[in-house]
């Protein structure tokens, strides 16, 4: 993560690209694109739409795009492989982690999240862009990036941005079959085999426990068998910034997860707040060599089948 002070002193650098990754749950009554257009927003920020920069062929929300689609979006947003990418959102720390995770999954070296997001930046007194963007077709290239993703499809096209890896091959993304075979213990009358990975769910505990309904229609209550619950908000302070390294380790530990050493897979409702857990694990000191995969379909997929 980077602090508001660091970002304020670096927003004018040509190699620093600031991305507004604001996205909200369907029942939140907020619109990330509209809020970006109306302001206030961090100076020189461009809108990175996690809904649009996704696999358009999937019936599930904002699934990971193909390498070509991601590269096309980066080209449209003016992002180079050598750039320092800083993601933020309007909630504090919520969907920005999804943007961070996507860049990491495609092998981008220099990517960070603004700790505390736009609220922390504004509270610190740093100037924000307040001019309304009238032409919605050019909301910091959001629509251009969306169109680029749609046109790229999954075919090979020439792009200036070159992902250095694919999320699945690099171990950053788990499918439903991966969860079935690698995250759930197997046993029969004669033997038992422990799971290879622990699936950690970032949803509120009441949703994980099946005590409250899901916000998306058609998705049943409950959890993946043998999963553990670490609500993403438990890693954050009241102002939306991350807790200390020690506190994050302890929050995982309270749910029986050794975040520094245990093979884990993160899940949530639609693959967004699970990325907060992945970012928290990195802040806690988990080695970069210990990849923390995301179950991209998350409960929206598991709870619909």
From TrEMBL:
**Per its UniProt record, what Gene3D superfamilies does this chain match?**
Rhodanese-like domain
Q: Which CDD domains match?
A: TST_Repeat_1, TST_Repeat_2
**SUPFAM superfamilies the record matches:** Rhodanese/Cell cycle control phosphatase (SSF52821)
Record GO terms (molecular function):
thiosulfate-cyanide sulfurtransferase activity
Pfam families, sorted: Rhodanese
- The transmembrane residues are none
Query: What's a GO cellular component annotated to this UniProt protein?
Result: mitochondrion
Alphabetized UniProt keyword annotations: Repeat, Transferase
Q: Domain Rhodanese, which positions? A: 12-130, 193-304
The name of this protein is Predicted protein
Q: Which organism is it from?
A: Micromonas pusilla (strain CCMP1545) (Picoplanktonic green alga)
């Amino acid at each position: 993560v980077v602090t508001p002070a660091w970002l304020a002193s670096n927003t004018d650098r040509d190699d620093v690209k600031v991305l507004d990754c604001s996205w909200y749950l369907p029942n939140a009554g907020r619109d990330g694109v509209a809020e970006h257009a109306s302001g206030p927003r961090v100076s020189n920020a461009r809108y990175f739409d996690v809904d649009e920069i996704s696999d358009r062929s999937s019936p599930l929300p904002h699934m990971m795009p193909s390498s070509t689609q991601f590269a096309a979006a980066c080209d449209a947003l003016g992002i180079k492989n050598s750039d320092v990418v800083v993601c933020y959102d309007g909630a504090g720390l919520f969907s920005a982690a999804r943007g961070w995770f996507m860049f990491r999954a495609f092998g981008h070296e220099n990517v960070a999240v603004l700790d505390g997001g736009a609220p922390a930046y504004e509270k610190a007194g740093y100037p924000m862009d307040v001019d309304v963007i009238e032409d919605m077709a050019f909301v910091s290239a959001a629509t251009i990036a969306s169109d680029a993703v749609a046109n790229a499809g999954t075919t090979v096209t020439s792009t200036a941005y070159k992902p250095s890896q694919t999320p699945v091959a690099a171990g950053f993304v788990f499918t439903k079959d991966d969860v079935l075979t690698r995250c759930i213990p197997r046993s029969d009358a004669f033997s038992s085999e422990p799971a290879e990975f622990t699936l950690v769910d970032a949803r509120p505990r009441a949703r994980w426990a099946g005590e409250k309904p899901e916000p998306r229609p058609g998705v049943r209550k409950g959890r993946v068998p043998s999963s553990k619950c670490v609500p993403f908000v438990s890693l954050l302070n009241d102002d939306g910034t991350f807790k200390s390294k020690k506190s994050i380790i302890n929050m995982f530990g309270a749910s029986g997860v050794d975040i520094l050493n245990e093979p884990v897979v993160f899940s949530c409702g639609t693959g967004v707040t699970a990325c907060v857990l992945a970012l928290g694990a990195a802040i806690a000191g988990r080695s970069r060599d210990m990849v923390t995969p995301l179950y991209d379909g998350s409960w929206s997929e598991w709870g619909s089948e």
